[in-house]
Design a protein that fits this description.
7 helices, 41% helix, single chain, 203 residues, 4 strands, globular, alpha/beta
């Protein structure tokens, strides 16, 4: 569709890079197995040494929401995003010793900053990393993880979720709500962190 507004929003929100060999793969919280499945695939192709799944229970809920798909395959009594992701990773061939998880975060900012705490506590040096996240969540994830890891070079490798893509998001009410919500949060959630980031980078 030849519409500058839609094109500009699409290009901003939907980041998709070709995976490159990196030190770690980060998984912001979620309940779709396709996300850790993709991360496991990248790991088995030697794209990274570590996988860092993140997530407790969303601040919007009082308990974990349950597996969104393939519940017949992933049928554990999961209490957190991290516990679920870890089970999916192991069932898809990732050794437990390659997984560094954190299970306290309740939103994306905490996913990033508590993941930083988790890898620092393990004395893991990360210079390059891949973020595997929902396609419409890509920009916000990149912004937050970049602020938590200001010296790391990131690649974003999203997976399609809710059938919301760069090419069709504006065609459904759910797509518009999801993407415009992300666009708003990319502005109003970042002021304090962005100022600290600028100070850190001495821009």
């Amino acid at each position: 569709m030849n519409n500058r507004i839609i094109t500009d929003i699409s290009n901003f929100i939907f980041i998709s890079d070709t995976p490159i060999k990196s030190d770690a793969i980060f998984l912001p919280g979620g309940s779709h197995p396709e996300q850790p499945e993709y991360a496991a695939e990248l790991y088995k192709k030697s794209f990274a040494k570590w996988i860092v799944p993140s997530g407790g229970v969303s601040v919007k809920r009082d308990k974990w929401p349950g597996v969104r798909s393939k519940a017949d395959v992933y049928n554990g009594d999961y209490k957190t995003d991290c516990e679920f992701f870890t089970d999916v990773l192991i069932k898809n061939g990732v050794p437990a010793e390659a997984i560094v998880g954190e299970d306290k975060s309740g939103h994306t900012r905490d996913n990033a900053f508590l993941s930083r705490k988790a890898v620092d506590e393990k004395c893991i040096e990360i210079k390059t990393a891949i973020i595997v996240c929902k396609a419409f969540h890509a920009r916000r994830c990149l912004m937050l993880y970049q602020m938590a890891f200001p010296d790391v070079s990131f690649t974003v490798c999203p997976f399609s979720c809710y059938n919301i893509t760069k090419d069709n998001w504006y065609k459904t009410e759910e797509g518009v709500d999801r993407v415009m919500g992300e666009l708003a949060r990319c502005g109003n959630q970042f002021t304090g962190d962005f100022k600290e980031y600028l100070d850190c980078k001495k821009v």
